[in-house]
Structure formats: C-alpha cells, structure tokens
C-alpha cells in the first residue's frame, strides 16, 4: 500500500530556547559549548540575547540592490516535484502525438496519475492488474471509498492516458494512438522546467562557495540507442503501384513516395512517413504538430534537467521588495500582514507545496554577499557610522562578522574569505519564501540572526538523524536522487515534516524574531519566512567539529562534490602555530595530523617515484581540484606528462590516465620529513597537557602516607592557567580539590584564630553564624582533612580543638544537671566556649540557664534589700522572668514576686486613697494603716509618703502646742507658716481651724489698719508707714544713708544700724517679745532723727549756698533749677516747684506743708488709732505692724509730753539775714517770708519729730502755729525805699502786718551740708538734777505750774530727752551762754566732754 494522504499539517514540538545571562552571553563559544550537550540532541536551537543586547542595523539600505530567486512552491516539495516531472513527461508524449493532456476527475477530485502509475507498476503492470482484477484494490490504496466501482474508472483512465506511454517506453505495438478526453477533464499545463532553468544565477562573490550550489550538475546524456529499443517489423510487401524513379518525399519505412496524401511530414526532423506505415498506423492526418517515432523517442528519452531556482527579471531594494512582499501577503490572506496568524501561514505553506493544482510563485533574496552590500551588524570602517554607545557591538563575539574568525573558531585558520562561510550572507524574505532541507558546507555549525521583520519558521533534525532523513527522502523520491545524487546539498528540495516524522525522522520546529538560531554539525534544517524580514547567517567551526569535517570531506569525495576549502590546509596552518595553540586544540590537531600523515604514508607509497614541491595555496581552487572526485588538493596530487592540466588526488591516481604509476609525478606541499616535526610540535604541546594530567591523577590517587602539599596543588593549577589547558573535568576536579583544600585550610585557620564570628559578652556567649560548624561537622571536617590527598598543616590543631569541644560538652552536661547552678560557673563555661569556634548545641541551654541564674540572683538581691525593692523593680523582675525559659526555681521566685507585687500595689492604692481622701482622715486611722504596712518587705513610695505625712502632722501639732506654752503670744509669721504647712499635710488637724480663724482676724485687723493709715493708691505698705523711716528725704535710700553718715559721723551707735525696711522687719520678727521689739524700733527712731536732722541741715546749707551764688541749685522731684512758685517742705526742708507737686487748696498760711516724700499716710487722729491697738491686744498675735503701731502710740505719747515740757527759742538775727539775702537775690517780686528756719536744736528736733509722727495731734498744729507767728520773718524792703527800719521794727511789722497766706513759697532752694563744728569741752560734770543759771521765757504752750517750768529748764536743749537713772551726765556751753545740757541730749559722750570744748548751737550761730 502506498502512504496515506496528508491532510492538515501538524506542527512538531518546539526546539529548546536558551536565554543566557549577561555574563554567559559575553563569550559566545563558551556558551555554545555549555549548551551543546542539550542542543546537539535536536540539532538546532534558539538563543535569545539579553534584553539590553540590541545591535543597530548597519546595512546601507539605499545601496543594497539584489535580484531575488523565483520559487514555485509546489516544485519545492520532493514528492510533488516527482509528480510534476511525471506529468510533464506524459504531457510531452501526448503533445508530440498531437494531443493535449487533460487530467480527469474522479469523485470530484483530480486523479493522481503518478500514484496510479506507481501502484499499477507495483501490482505487476496493466495486464496483471486486469488479469487478477485488482483495480478495486488500487482504488482503495488511492484513498477512494470501496464499493463504488471506482476501479473500472481507474482502469479506463489508465488504459486511455498512461498505457500508450507505457507501451511506447517498452517498444510494444499499440492498438490505437488517439487520446480522447472528457469535457470535464482539466487541461494540464507543463511546467517546462528545462526552459526555465536555462538562465543560471549570477555568482555574487568571487570566492568559490558551497560547491556552486545553484549550478546544476548534469550527467552526460546516455546514447539514444540505449533509450530506444528496436521495434520488430513484419515483412512488408512492396506494392505494385508504379512510382516515379525519383520521388521528392519518400516514406522512411517503405522507401516509396507514393500515396502522397497519406505522407506525414515530421515537424521535428522533416522526415516523411505513410500513415499506414506507422506503428500503430494512423487513420487520419493529425491536425497539429506531429513528431515521427525517431523524434518522439529522442524527445522522451532526454535525461531530466537538474532542478534549480531561476532568477527574477527585476532588481529590488529593501523598500521595493518590502512593498511587494507586504502587498502579496495582505492580498493572499485578505487581511493586514500583522494580523495573519503564524499557524495559518504554516498550514497554508505546506498545503501549497503539496498540491499540483495551485501554482503559487514567490521571490526570495537569498545568498546576498555582505562583503559587497554591507552587513546588518556594525563593522569597523563600515559605510554606516556607529554611535559611541554602539561601539561595543563592533567587537562583540555575537557579531556574525567576528564569530567565524574568533580564536575559538578553527575557521580563523582558513586564509581565504569564503562568502557565506567566513563572510556573512544576507537574506531578504517574503511570505512563503523558503530555504530547503540542507546541511551546512563541510557539516559545519551555522548561526542565523533575524535583524528585523516577521519571523522565520524553522525545522531541524539532529546530526544523528541525518542518514535517516536522507534515506527517507531517497525512498520517497528516488527519481530526484537518480539524476542528482547531491540533491540535498543544492538547497532546492523540501519534504513535508509530517511525512518525515511518519517515517521515523525526529524533527524540531520553531519560529523566531530578533534572535539567534544555531545549527549543529550535519544537522539538516529547512524552513520558510512568515513575511517580509531581513536575516544574516554565517558558519563557524569549533575544535570538536574537526573529526566531523574530515568525515565530510570523505563524503564529498564519494559524491564528487566540490569542497569549499581544503581541510588539510587548515590543519597544517594550525600545526604551524603549535607553540601558541590551546592545549585542547593541540590535542585535536594532533589526532587530525596523525590521521592525515598516516593516509599520506599509505597513498604516497604506491609506485610513484618522482615528486615535486608545489605551493597549492597559491593556486586557485579550480586548478587544484581532483579530476575525479573534485576534492581540493593541498598536501599532494598526481599528474602525468601525458595529460597536462589534469590533476587527481592520491585516492584516484588510477583514474588519471592509462600510464603506469612510475610515470606519474607526485606534487606535494610538504614532504613526510617535514610533516613529522610539525606533528611533533603539536604533540609536545598536547603531551604537556598529558603530563599535567598524569601528575594530577597521581595526586588524586595518592595514599595517605604519600600525600603532597597544598602548594603542589596550587602549582598545578597555575600551570594549567599558564598553559591554557582545556577546562576538562580533570582540571575542574583539580581546581575543586585545590579550592576545597584552601577552604579547609582557611577555615581551619579561622577556627583556630577564633575570627569567624563576632562575639559578645552580654549573653555569655557569641552570635551563631550561618556558616558555623557543628560539632559533628567539625568531626567530619577533621575526617575530611584526613581524607584530602594533600597535607593541611592546621589538621593537628583542629584535632586538639575537637578534644576541647568534647571536654566542654562533658562539663556542660554536668553543670546543666544541677538544679541551681551558679551564674559564675555558667559564665565561666560560656567564656570557655568563646575559644571554641564551632556550633555547640549546649550553648542555647547554657545561655538560658545563665539568664535564669542571673535573674534568680537579682531577685534574691532585691528581696534582701527591702528598702530599695520598689514596684518598678518587682515589675521589671517579673517582666524579665516572663521572658525566661520555664524552670521550677524561676517559677517559684516569680510566684513570690507576683504575690508581693499584688500586696504592694494594693497598699499603694490604699495609701494614696488615704492621702487623697476628703475630708482628711484622723491621725489614728493613718497610724493604724502604717502599722500594717510595716510588715511588707518592699519600698512603697505612697506608704512612705503616708508615713512622712503622719510625722509632719505630729511635728506640726507639737509646734502648735509649743506656741501656747507659758502664755506666750505667738508671732504672725509662725502662725502663717504653720497654716501653710498644714495645707500640705493631708491629715485632719484640730488646731488648724483655730489658727486659720486667728489669721483671718489678723488679716481683718491689717485691712482695717491699712484703711486707717494708708493713702489711696499708696505705694507704701502698712509696716512702712508705722515704723520710723529708714529713708528720709527725696533721694534714694542708699544716697540718704550716705549723706547721713557724712553729715553726722559722730552720731553712729555701737549697735548694728538698720538701714532698710526689710532689715527692720526681720529684726522685729526675730525679737523675742514686745520689749525687744520696742528697743529695735527705738534704735530705728533715733537713726531716723539723726538722718532727718542731717538732711534738713544739708537742704538748708544747699539753699544758703545757692543764695550766695557759689553753686547752681537742683531741686524738686524733677531735679531742675528753681523757677516760678516754689514750696518748701517743713520736714526735709527741700523745695519743690508748685507745678510738680499737689497741695491742698484748703491749706492755710499757718499750716505746715509736707512734700510728697514726707507725707506718708493719712495721719489719722489718735483716737482712731487707739482702738486698733486695743483690738490687736484682743487677738493676741504678735506681728510687725502691731509692734510698730504700739511703738507709734508710745512715741506719740512721749512726744506730747516733750512738747508740754519744751520752751520756744528766738531765731538768730544773723540766720534771718542770710536767708533774706538769699531770698532777696532770687525772688522777683519778693516772695512771702519763710517761717522758722533757725530754731533751736530742741525745737527743731521736736518739730521734726512731730511731723514724722503718722498720727494727727493738736499739739503739732499748735506748736507750728506758735512758732510760725512768733518767728515769722518780714519780707525784705523794696529797692525803692531809702531807709531801713531797725530789725526790731521789721520784726514787729512782720508779726503785725503780714498778710495771712495759705502757702509759704520760695523762689529757689539749694542745699549743701552746713559745716557744723561741734567741739565741746566738758567743764563741769554733775549728777542728779540741777537748775540752769538762766530761765527760758514763757510761751503760750508753757504749763501754769512753776514746778514743771523749772523742770523743763533744767536742760537748755529744746529737745531734752529727760534722761533718767541714778546718774545723769551734764555738759556746760563754753560759749557766751554758759547753759547746761544733758550730754545725751546734745550728743556728747563723756570722753568728748572731758577732752574738747562744747559750744551750743545758739552760741555757734551768734559767733558766725
């Protein structure tokens, strides 16, 4: 049975696809060698470059012009072409018979005449089939359904169309020679292959390539006699018809020219034949051209023409070809080119190549030389400039211009530039254009890169299936191989992959775009283009190809096929560079040279005696090809003088001529003597590698007692690197062994040095590294060191380390078995582990037990110090304990801590609630709680605070009780402090309410006193107003104090002077009782009087100095000069501008005016002040304001008594005169007279102290009015007056005629301290009371009692202080008055009275 009909194409499984990384892609041959084991199984593979590898397209598009090949698809397929050749022969046979061949239809299908003819021949021929009635069987074999009487139709068609041709071929007689056709039959148009093959393709490269694959090799035609068999003829009787002696046309059969109407003239040779002389005879004259039997036998007996592609008649460039290709595809599939599925194109392609009914023609721009038009890859000095970023592609190994000539490619030793093999070929494809089944020249590798465009569909078979594929194709299309034995080398024949697979051939298809396709040696491949694209391909050979290449040359010799290059020449070129050759390549070259020299030895010794050296490499390939097998000669060739220009190889010396071998000449490139040293050099290079291999193997097989050192292994590795030895498994094994040994040595050294890990002491150990050795690994490591074929010097030390590790393990087990190991012991053991740089399984448990031991010790220490065991400590310990591994001791300690924490927290909350309770708890409640807390062994802040609160409360109550001991009157500050302290004591204190009420009464009293004394919006405090002044006058406290010191240096007391209110207040607070407070205030009063007197004197002196014009004056609050109306203060005697101060409008002329600095309070009447003192006594609380009020009242009473005892003194006339002169010089018009200015000391001090009193007394106003009216100074005379009255008259006028003034004014006042020289000498000293020699005149204030007047006159000082005691010291004035004074009243000490003279103030003024 014939093969089944192929229906729909089924694509084979895909081939392997490799995606190298960037590093792997950097070396193409290394990567190809890496994938060869996998890819060789399929013969073809695809390599997808990394995404970033995108070379620019460097071909000159405008310059590229090419003429494509024309491909008729159904002529490409082998079986289809056989059918077409057969039909062409049948059609020609009938055409020569004057008939047209029409192929009949059977069952609405065109009848396969070729298959019908083959099946009939296989069944024994037409007669046998008819005789045995096998037509039904043949119809089934042809695929028709049985039972439809198809066999009779097949018989009729065979008998009508094929049987006459069969008879003609055998030379048998035919019954008839006419061809009748049915009107439904399809007329067959011959393909006329010989006519189309008459034009051969142009050779685009000057170098021979691929055995002229497009040149048909036609064998010489056989003689006609062998094709035409003699036809037996029956004896022919010559007719009796008379004929002319010479006929113009004579029948070549009968030799007569009669019956000219029945003579046929052959349209081929012009011979004549009678229709009735032909065999078989013709009844009628044919209408068309007719060929005689001789011409018919000659035409039908012509040998078949070798099939090849014809060239198109049009040249294309890329643009025009692309337009044509896209237009064809879109029109054929009736859709845009990019939308046509690749599967649809594939199935349609194989349908078209398998049918004889459709003739589809495409064009293919194949085998375009890149040397002429430029490569698609960038090349140096190319026609297209390359940018800086793309310069790496110039030298890339995957650049197809570089790959064939890389060092790893043996083609680099082929000197000629072979187009398509060393120089890339370009391919411009369109839809359905195909490349037929073929293997590469010399069975080399090939690599194809699709630059752009639509993909290619490839089919490949591994090299191991090459013979099988060739056998299947020869079996299925033997007719093609009979005429073309090297048909598969011509790239003109394809066969359906499904057909090959059905016959057991393994095929691998795939499609690719922008990727590399690599074919391996002798791997058949074919395919077609899916559409318009541009590809580039080249060959390369690696050293593993060399034996295959030699087999290919032998194969070519059998086929008489041209070689592209000389294999022997390439091997010799490589041998010439043996010193620089890679060792692996040298080994391969050595094997090649051994085979080559052995063959030369055998063939050269066959009787040829003469030799001649010839440089074959200088000859063209055509001149050094073997005449018989067309092999390119290089090492040797045979010539004979009888046949000049002819050359044969040593294998075909007998085919040169008939001369004996002794007459031949051996033309050789090298003598055998020359070849041997070449092979020796290669062998030495290769054997150096073998010696190295032997050394390595010796090391690997060395026993334990004969181990080598690690340095020797390293030297072998270095030798392999220096000698560029092949990276074989042995070298990889040596490297791995050396690397392992070095790692072992390094690891051993690190283990010994203890540097493999980063250690820490906080946890009592070290971090566990990922590559840390376990104990078993260490043990295995030591065993591994013993098993290494080399010596590691650290091995003994590692054994010692293993011993120490075993000791550590024993100690760890002993320690861990203890219920409560000490932290020190655990830490010590962990410290030992620091020197053991291996993974110790006991370490985690040891660390856990260490943490537990440390925690337990910390908990015990904390429990042993209850004073520092706070809640945070307990919580911290519990939190730490939670993170520990479970253990009985830890859990028990945790339970105790938790219980203690719970109790402590409860008492802390209770203590806090006791302190924050409102109302406060009693002392008894808090003390009871504290008794319970005493039993808790922990530091509880709230409980401690509660304890402190109770202690503070007890102290507070004790202090309150102490204040009431002995009936003492408590001080206000003490009470305030107690109340303030009680606010911070959260305990119910019974006395607190009483103290707060007492303070409230004091505060009420102070407010009442402030309302009584203080002026509205006053800046002075109540204490400032009630106590004697420390700052008298308009200046600052510091300046006044300084002035007072300068004015009266002799008035200083022995006691510390109180210069500020704060000091006075502090002294009052520090006083033990009222008496000491009164003493303190008395000292302040005396200081006040001294400072006041000094200030008054200074201000008066300033005014007098300004009156003399000796210095400028600065007065008032504004510190400016006198101007306009001026007011003089009766207390400080300073003057002020009337605009700068405020005066009461109701102030009368005889009323004293005080400046704002001296007017400190309201000066309430005494009757308003006394109730305040009475209410304070009822409160029974001492406060500074109360002491000050008591002293103020006592001072007021004393002053009243002194006023009652005092007598006024007249003013000194000199003093009045001086003042009047000053006033007269500054007043214009003259101001009113100034009141008392030169009073006596007693009255001056008395009047000043009255003004200082902060109580309004009638005595003050009375004394002032008296002095004002008595001592008033009359205004100075007018300048127009020519006479002056006596002073007494002036004084009389001043008293009688002075108008009443509400205010006393001065134009200006300026003062400097007056120089008072108090020098007194004590003339007499008396004790007791003694009357003065003179008596003071009476005044309105004097008492009616004479006794009192006498008592008052005892001391002449107006400010007599009436000293008391057993002994009173007196001093007498040494001036003119001889009056007596108390020493204390005039400020003279006993020592001064004894040493110096004393002059009273009146005598001093009179003297001045």
From TrEMBL:
Signal peptide extent: none
GO terms of molecular function: DNA binding; histone H3K4me/H3K4me2/H3K4me3 demethylase activity; zinc ion binding
Places the protein is found: Nucleus
GO CC annotation terms, alphabetical: chromatin; nucleus
Keywords from the UniProt entry: Chromatin regulator, Dioxygenase, Iron, Metal-binding, Nucleus, Oxidoreductase, Repeat, Zinc, Zinc-finger
Enzyme class: oxidoreductase
Region (Disordered): 211-239, 1032-1058, 1275-1348
SUPFAM superfamilies tied to this protein: ARID-like (SSF46774), Clavaminate synthase-like (SSF51197), FYVE/PHD zinc finger (SSF57903)
Pfam families, alphabetized: ARID, JmjC, JmjN, KDM5_C-hel, PHD, PLU-1, zf-C5HC2
Catalyzed reaction equations: N(6),N(6),N(6)-trimethyl-L-lysyl(4)-[histone H3] + 3 2-oxoglutarate + 3 O2 = L-lysyl(4)-[histone H3] + 3 formaldehyde + 3 succinate + 3 CO2
Biased composition (Low complexity): 1280-1289
Domain (JmjN) ranges: 15-56
Ranges for domain PHD-type: 248-298, 1113-1161, 1352-1406
Family membership noted in the UniProt record: Belongs to the JARID1 histone demethylase family.
Protein name, per record: [histone H3]-trimethyl-L-lysine(4) demethylase
Organism from which the protein derives: Gadus morhua (Atlantic cod)
């Amino acid at each position: 049975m014939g093969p089944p009909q192929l229906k729909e194409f089924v694509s084979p499984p895909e081939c392997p696809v490799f995606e190298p990384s960037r590093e792997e892609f950097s070396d193409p041959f290394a990567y190809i060698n890496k994938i060869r084991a996998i890819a060789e199984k399929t013969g073809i593979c695809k390599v997808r470059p990394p995404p970033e590898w995108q070379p620019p397209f460097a071909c000159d598009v405008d310059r590229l012009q090419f003429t494509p090949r024309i491909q008729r698809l159904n002529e490409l397929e082998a079986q289809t072409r056989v059918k077409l050749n057969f039909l062409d022969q049948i059609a020609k046979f009938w055409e020569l018979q004057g008939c047209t061949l029409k192929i009949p239809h059977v069952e609405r299908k065109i009848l396969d005449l070729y298959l019908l003819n083959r099946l009939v021949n296989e069944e024994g021929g037409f007669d046998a089939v008819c005789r045995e009635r096998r037509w039904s069987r043949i119809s089934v074999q042809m695929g028709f359904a049985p039972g439809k009487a198809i066999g009779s139709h097949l018989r009729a068609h065979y008998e009508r169309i094929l049987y006459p041709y069969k008879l003609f071929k055998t030379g048998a007689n035919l019954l008839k020679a006419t061809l009748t056709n049915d009107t439904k039959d399809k007329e067959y148009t011959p393909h006329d292959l010989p006519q189309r093959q008459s034009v051969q393709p142009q050779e685009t490269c000057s170098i021979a390539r691929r055995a002229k694959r497009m040149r048909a090799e036609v064998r010489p035609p056989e003689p006609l006699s062998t094709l035409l068999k003699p036809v037996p003829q029956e004896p022919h009787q010559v007719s009796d018809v008379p004929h002319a002696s010479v006929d113009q046309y004579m029948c070549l059969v009968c030799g007569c020219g009669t019956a000219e109407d029945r003579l046929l003239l052959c349209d081929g040779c012009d011979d004549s034949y009678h229709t009735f002389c032909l065999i078989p005879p013709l009844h009628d004259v044919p209408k068309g051209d007719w060929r005689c039997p001789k011409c018919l036998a000659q035409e039908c007996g012509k040998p078949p023409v070798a099939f090849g592609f014809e060239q198109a008649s049009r040249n294309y460039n890329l643009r025009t070809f692309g337009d044509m290709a896209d237009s064809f595809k879109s029109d054929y599939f009736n859709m845009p080119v990019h939308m046509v599925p690749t599967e649809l194109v594939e199935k349609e392609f194989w349908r078209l190549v398998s049918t004889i009914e459709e003739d589809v023609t495409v064009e293919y721009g194949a085998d375009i030389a890149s040397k002429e038009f430029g490569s698609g890859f960038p090349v140096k000095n190319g026609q297209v400039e390359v940018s800086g970023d793309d310069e790496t592609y110039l030298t890339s190994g995957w650049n197809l211009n570089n790959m064939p000539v890389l060092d790893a490619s043996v083609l680099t030793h082929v000197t000629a530039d072979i187009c398509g093999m060393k120089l890339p070929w370009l391919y411009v494809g369109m839809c359905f254009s195909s490349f037929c089944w073929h293997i590469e020249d010399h069975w080399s590798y090939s690599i194809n890169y699709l630059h752009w465009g639509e993909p290619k569909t490839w089919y490949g078979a591994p090299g191991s299936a090459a013979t099988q594929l060739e056998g299947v194709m020869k079996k299925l299309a033997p007719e093609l191989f009979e005429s073309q034995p090297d048909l598969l080398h011509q790239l003109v024949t394809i066969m359906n992959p499904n057909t090959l697979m059905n016959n057991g051939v393994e095929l691998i298809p795939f499609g690719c775009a922008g990727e590399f396709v690599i074919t391996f040696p002798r791997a058949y491949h074919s395919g077609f283009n899916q559409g318009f694209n541009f590809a580039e391909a080249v060959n390369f050979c690696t050293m593993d190809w060399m034996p295959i290449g030699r087999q290919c040359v032998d194969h070519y010799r059998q086929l008489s096929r041209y070689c592209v290059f000389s294999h022997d020449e390439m091997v010799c070129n490589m041998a010439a560079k043996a010193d620089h050759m890679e060792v692996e390549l040298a080994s391969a070259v050595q094997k090649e040279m051994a085979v080559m020299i052995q063959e030369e030895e055998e063939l050269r010794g066959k009787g040829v005696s003469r030799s001649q050296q010839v440089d074959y490499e200088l000859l063209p390939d055509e001149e050094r090809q073997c005449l018989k097998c067309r092999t390119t000669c290089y090492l040797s060739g045979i010539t004979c003088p009888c046949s000049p220009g002819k050359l044969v190889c040593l294998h075909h010396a007998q085919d040169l001529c008939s001369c004996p071998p002794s007459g031949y000449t051996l033309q050789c490139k090298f003598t055998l003597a020359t070849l041997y040293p070449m092979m020796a050099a290669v062998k030495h290079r290769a054997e150096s590698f073998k010696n190295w291999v032997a050394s390595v193997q010796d090391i690997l097989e060395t026993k334990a007692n004969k181990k080598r050192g690690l340095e020797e292994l390293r030297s072998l590795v270095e030798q392999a690197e220096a000698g560029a030895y092949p990276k074989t498994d042995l070298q990889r094994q040596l490297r791995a062994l050396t690397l392992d040994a070095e790692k072992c040595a390094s690891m051993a050294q690190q283990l010994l040095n203890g540097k493999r890990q980063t250690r820490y002491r906080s946890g009592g150990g070290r971090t566990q590294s990922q590559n840390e050795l376990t104990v078993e690994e260490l043990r295995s490591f030591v065993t591994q060191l013993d098993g290494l074929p080399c010596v590691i010097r650290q091995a003994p030390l590692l054994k010692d380390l293993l011993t120490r590790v075993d000791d550590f393990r024993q100690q760890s087990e002993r320690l861990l078995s203890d219920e409560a190991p000490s932290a020190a012991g655990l830490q010590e053991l962990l410290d030992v582990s620091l020197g053991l740089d291996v993974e110790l399984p006991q370490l985690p448990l040891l660390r856990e037990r260490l943490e537990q031991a440390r925690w337990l010790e910390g908990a015990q220490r904390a429990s042993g110090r209850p004073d520092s065991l706070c809640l945070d400590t307990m919580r911290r310990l519990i939190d730490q304990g939670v993170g520990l591994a479970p253990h009985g001791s830890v859990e028990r300690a945790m339970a105790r801590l938790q219980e203690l924490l719970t109790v402590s927290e409860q008492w802390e909350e209770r203590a806090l609630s006791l302190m924050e309770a409102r109302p406060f708890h009693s002392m008894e409640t808090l003390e009871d709680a504290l008794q319970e807390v005493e039993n808790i062994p922990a530091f509880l802040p709230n409980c401690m605070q509660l304890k402190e609160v109770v202690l503070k409360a007890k102290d507070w109550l004790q202090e309150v009780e102490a204040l009431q001991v002995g009936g003492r009157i408590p001080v206000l500050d003490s009470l305030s402090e107690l109340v303030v302290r009680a606010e911070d004591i959260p305990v119910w204190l019974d006395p607190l309410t009483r103290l707060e009420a007492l303070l409230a009464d004091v505060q009420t009293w102070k407010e009442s006193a402030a309302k009584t004394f203080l002026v509205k919006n006053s800046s002075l405090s109540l204490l400032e107003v009630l106590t004697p002044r420390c700052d008298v006058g308009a200046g600052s406290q510091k300046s006044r104090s300084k002035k007072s010191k300068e004015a009266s240096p002799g008035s200083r007391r022995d006691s510390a002077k109180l210069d500020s209110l704060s000091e006075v207040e502090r002294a009052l607070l520090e006083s033990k009782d009222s008496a000491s407070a009164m003493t303190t205030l008395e000292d302040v009063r005396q200081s006040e009087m001294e400072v006041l007197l000094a200030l008054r004197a200074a201000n008066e002196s300033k005014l007098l100095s300004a009156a003399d014009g000796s210095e400028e004056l600065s007065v008032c609050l504004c510190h400016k000069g006198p101007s306009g109306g001026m007011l003089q203060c009766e207390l400080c005697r300073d003057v002020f501008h009337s605009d700068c101060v405020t005066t009461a409008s109701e102030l009368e002329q005889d009323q004293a005016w005080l400046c704002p600095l001296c007017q400190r309070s309201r000066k309430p009447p005494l009757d308003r002040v006394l109730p305040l003192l009475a209410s304070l006594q009822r409160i029974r609380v001492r406060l500074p304001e109360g002491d000050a009020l008591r002293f103020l009242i006592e001072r007021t009473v004393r002053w009243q008594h002194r006023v009652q005892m005092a007598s006024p003194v007249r003013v000194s006339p000199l003093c009045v005169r001086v003042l009047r002169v000053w006033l007269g010089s500054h007043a214009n018009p003259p101001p009113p007279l100034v009141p008392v200015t030169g009073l006596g000391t007693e009255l001056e001090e008395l009047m000043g102290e009255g003004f200082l009193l902060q109580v309004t007394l009638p005595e003050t106003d009375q004394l002032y009015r008296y002095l004002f009216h008595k001592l008033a100074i009359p205004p100075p005379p007018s300048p127009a007056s020519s006479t002056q009255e006596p002073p007494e008259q002036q004084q009389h006028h001043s008293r009688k005629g002075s108008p009443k003034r509400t205010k006393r004014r001065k134009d200006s006042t300026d003062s400097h301290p007056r120089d008072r020289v108090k020098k007194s000498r004590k003339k007499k000293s008396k004790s007791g009371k003694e009357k003065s020699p003179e008596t003071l005149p009476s005044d309105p204030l004097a008492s009616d009692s004479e006794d009192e007047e006498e008592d008052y006159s005892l001391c002449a000082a107006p400010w007599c202080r009436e000293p008391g005691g057993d002994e009173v010291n007196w001093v007498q004035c040494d001036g003119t008055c001889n009056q007596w004074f108390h020493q204390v009243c005039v400020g003279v000490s006993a020592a001064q009275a004894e040493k110096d003279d004393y002059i009273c103030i009146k005598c001093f003024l009179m003297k001045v």
